[in-house]
Amino acid sequence: MTRPPIVVLHGALGSAAQMQPMADALSAIGEVHCLELPGHGDTQLPDAATFSMATFANALRDAITLRGWHQPLVFGYSMGGYVALLLESLSPGTLGGIVTLGTKFEWTPDVAAGAAARLDAAVLQSKAPAFAEQLRVRHAGAGGWEQMMARTAALLVALGATPLLTAETLASVQIPLRVAAGSRDDTLAEGEAGRLAALLPNATCTPLPDVPHPIERVPTALVVDLVGGLLRDLSRS
Question: I want to staple 87 with a disulfide (CB 3.0 to 4.6 A). Which of 37, 57, 133, 167 is the partner?
């Protein structure tokens, strides 16, 4: 029996290596591929490319085309979920299904400015040196963590000015989805995951009690259950 392709996408400040424990767990139910977005981890941003959601969506599309994955299911953590939703809104039918976890889609100028202000490398180095060291090691192959932080801050400001996922764009995402969020995820506004699911024609919202935002603190079994449930639904359709 052919194992379904599952693409795992990391979040902002993340990398493919960070998602490997989740990918290992998901390998029990499918053929898993950890994709690293340009400008993260060990993956350089191409000279002609911008550090943007559009570039990330194109990278996902190009990987699907190059590797011959037929309508893969995407597990997108945080920003990775945004990237998957954006690609499917721009090219309906590219994906077979999406599971998002902790994906924020309600970006306003004020929200984006607040998030960007927390991405000051010098402040982080001073207040959280251990985390700064993790980022230094994680992004050494992509031009350095300070540059990645500055680029991410600019990306968020751009999203606040011009959100890409709107009621209109999300209406074109017809594939099955699971929108999941932890009850202790402080990156999302109250009820935000439910509002996202309500804008998607074929989505359900799954709250995860006592689960925070950091992917390292999310039990892998919960994600396997989410993705496995969507795969079972797809196999019956």
Answer: 57
CA–CA distance, 29 with 92 (Å, rounded to integer): 25
Helices and strands (H, E) in the chain, number of each type: 10, 6
Give the amino acid at 61.
R
Which residues are 139's β-sheet partners?
none
Distance CA 23, CA 215 (A): 12
The average pLDDT across 187-208 equals 96
Give CA–CA dist 144/139, Å, rounded: 5
Q: What is the pLDDT of residues 84-108, one digit of tens each?
A: 999 999 999 999 999 999 999 999 9
154-180 pLDDT, tens digit per residue, is 999 999 999 999 999 999 999 999 999
Residue 132 confidence (pLDDT): 97
- pLDDT above 80 (res 1): no
- The DSSP string of 25-73 is HHTTTSEEEEEPPTTBTTBPPPTT--SSHHHHHHHHHHHHHHHT--S-E
- Which residues are within 8 A (CB) of 130 and not within 5 positions of it... i.e. 6 or more apart? none
Torsion of CA 218, 219, 225, 226, to 10 degrees: 0
Q: Tens digit of pLDDT for each residue in 4-13?
A: 899 999 999 9
Q: Specify the DSSP element, H or E, that contains 97.
A: strand 97-101
d(CA 135, CA 122): 13
Q: What CA–CA distance (Å, rounded) separates 95 from 103?
A: 17
Cα 95 off chain centre by: 14
